[in-house]
Amino acid sequence: MAMPVITILMMLPRLLAVLGYDPALAAEIGRFLAAIAWAVPGFLGFAVLRSFLVAASHSRTVMIALTLCIPLNAGLNWILIFGHFGAPALGIAGSGCATAIIQWLMFAGLALYTEMTPSLAEYRMRPVFAPLG
């Protein structure tokens, strides 16, 4: 599912240009969308694990992940948009980069939780073929 979404995100700046947006604004939006496209697989993975964990009565974990990532996203935005702590000032593209990083961190956090929680062991992926011997 990530590829169609990424493709649409990559086509949007051209659509904006055709619709008559200022070329500089369309280019800036394109930089943001190119950065945010990296978030799509992480976002979709997070969405799957979020739904799974809520269905498995582990909604508190999802809430904690989201609550922790809100200030982290704000901090990363501040650093990457304005170039604090030696980071380059990326402008609006920095916001896309921060969001992509956070999406992947949330996905990784829920994946790690799912893998480490004993009560979820029965739902983990198992090898299709058992070793012979």
Structural features, described:
With about 130 residues, the protein is mostly helical. It has a domain at about 30-120. Helices cover about 70% and strands about 0% of the residues. It contains five helices and no strands. It has helices spanning about 1-20, 25-35, 40-55, 60-80, 90-115. Helix 1 runs antiparallel to helix 2 and helix 3 (about 40-55) runs parallel beside helix 5 (about 90-115). The termini are far apart. The mean pLDDT is about 90.
Features:
globular; 133 residues
Catalogue the unreliable spans.
none
Rounded mean pLDDT is: 91
Shape, please? globular
Q: What class, by secondary structure content?
A: mainly alpha
What oligomeric state best describes the polypeptide chains here? single chain
**How many beta-strand runs?**
0
Estimated helix fraction: over 70%
Largest sheet: none
Ends distance: 39 Å
Cα Rg: 19 Å
| Count of separate DSSP helical elements | 5
The H/E string reads HHHHH
Summarize the structure.
With 133 residues, the protein is an all-alpha fold.
Secondary structure layout:
Blueprint: H1 2-18, H2 23-36, H3 40-55, H4 59-82, H5 92-116
Helix pairs in contact: 1-2, 2-5, 3-4, 3-5, 4-5
